Prior knowledge:
5 helices, Alpha-Beta Plaits, flat, 8 strands, 2 domains, 30% helix, alpha+beta
Amino acid sequence: MGLFGRKKTTGEEKKTVKISEKVEKTQAEPASMKDLYSDAGKLKTSEGKTAAVSKVKRIFSQTYRIIVKPIITEKVTNLGVENKYAFAVARKANKIEIAKAIEETYGIKPLAVNIINMKGKQVRYGRMAGKRKDWKKAIVTLPEGKTIKVYEGV
C-alpha cells in the first residue's frame, strides 16, 4: 500500500492501461469523413444503435449576477402603466445580457431594454464625507398583456 491507502502501480501496469485506452479510441473512430457527417444529428448508444439527439435549451447561467434587484419606487410604479419595469443590474452588464436574464428569470422576452448609469450620491456621516457606489439601472419594456409580479410581499 502506498501513501493514503492507494495501491502502488508499477510502470508496466501503467503502460498496459495506456495501450488498452489507445486501442479503444481507435476502434471508436469512424472509417471516413462521410461517416462523421452522416451521423451528425444522431448519438450512438451502447448497443451500437443510433438515437436522435434532442437539442438542449441553452441556459443563461449568469442571471443571478446580472439582475441585482427590482426597483420599487413611486416613479417606477407609474411606469407599470406603460408595461415598463426597472431593475438594478450589474455595472458591467449590457442590454443583451439583461434581456436574456429577464427572459430566463421571468419567462418573458422583453421588447426593449434601456440602461442608465447612476452616479452614487455624496453622503456625510458627521464630519466624515463619502460617496455611495455608482450603479446601473435597466428599464425593461415588456409586450402588451405580459406582466411581472414584482410587487408581491411589498
